[in-house]
Amino acid sequence: MSVQQPSTVEPLAALPAQTGAAPLPEWTALGPVLALVAAGLLLLLWDTVFPNRRTNTELSVIAAVGSLAALALSGWYLAAGTGRPATGGAITLFAEAITIDGLALFFTAIVASVTTLVVVASRDYLTDHETPGEFYSLVVLAAAGMALLASASSLATIFVALEMVSLPSYALVAYLKENRGSVEAGLKYFLVGAVSSAIFVFGISLVYAATGSLLLSDVAAAFGDLGDLAGVAGVGVVMMIAGFAFKTASVPVHFWAPEVYEGAPAPVSAFLSSASKAAGFAVAFRVFTEAFHLGGEVTAVGIDWALVFAVLAVVTMTLGNFAAAVQTEVKRMLAYSSIGHAGYALIGLAAISAGGSHNGAVMGASMAHLFVYGFMNTGAFLFIAMVERWGVGRTFEDYAGLGTVAPMASVAMTVFMFSLAGLPPFGGFFSKYFLFAGAVFNGFWWLAAVGALNSVLSLYYYSRVVKAIWIEDPTDALAAVDSRPTALYGAVIVAAVATVVVLPGFGPVIETAEAAATALFG
After folding, report:
1. What is the model's pTM?
2. What residue ranges of the chain have pLDDT lower than 50?
3. Residue 251: CB partners within 8 Å, gap ≥ 6?
4. How do the domains of the chain map onto residue ranges?
């Protein structure tokens, strides 16, 4: 292991210094990733050593403790200022292949939060499965790959981390082996993912051929003088954009998302649409600010990245919202809704223009929106998981009258729907407000206007869920609602509380996100 920064993990050293203890070694900056890896391996070991006593409860607790440990470490490091310029700057490990900074820690916190909710909810969702050990280990190890993806600062590391996320995800989508929809969704996800990975790695090879390096810092330096290889590099970057679009379910590689999210187990849909999307944007933010000069001078390949991402943002949010508005099934509606929110997050890349003076603010707002989105979207899919467990049905009509038999969960779902639509006083309103304001300040007022119009459109289909739950007359299907799955119920309520509590606590969230984003432009 090679450490490029001469400083130790300064903020971590601050606490031991009060008692005269030695500073913690720099490798401990990888603590959140290591916590997830340790939990995943422990789950596999536990499932092997105790095959006759393995239960959903034990395995769920191990997975939850591991993800909570990752969340606690990420929060501690962020609060202490790890990776910020004031504390010695980003910490680079393994010959600059991994970078621990505010952006990496912020997105690791998002991934760990979503993972905790998913593994807790899965305790009830998988209650009838005899061998749930592999499910929990796959979820936690995929989360470890997402956290590593947020920290990757080499194109090689990015590809390896991307596969660490993708391979477990294929198995998770097809986990319900006796369910034809789940198996079909897993097969489609695998085929599209394999093609996307091939395109992405070929793009990396072209960038390497043009620049002679895989490190993002070296790639950025080489882009200043590409000569005749500018076209090769440009094609490589475009192919890499396609890979990022697949991971974030953005246009033009979005078509897999509705099929996969609909067929997968609902907790898996929550995990992929929230945590995996956040990890995809984390690496996209890093690559297009550190390697390809997004937000700086126009690169030698002659591509206006701001315009490219602006077009992708508009098309993605518009297509996602219009498609969601015509769906008849709630889960499929949320799948298209997740595509629309990918378009909102793309504003964080699109609004970073060559002459913009609020680059850190607009990217930080996009990061904050993904933070809030992690809770409200995960909670919405977990509510669907509860409905699936009850066997109520999939359509809007099947949800009619749910508020009369499950009032607390229905209130939580109402919070999720209104927050996703961007209505005050929920967290989604503030995250969209700062995101659109950042775009306006950077000269992309028209992009903010398109986003606002799409938010108005989304209110139509989100309100359909609320109307069905609270206003429409109950159906005979509600007779199946005869239990209150404690863990699943608790996860839904916690996600709703987080969505509401982020209202008074949004200040620290946006400040932390903006500080992490601004450091990338330093």
Report:
1. 0.91
2. 1-21, 296-298, 354
3. 245, 312, 315, 316, 319, 339, 343
4. 304-522
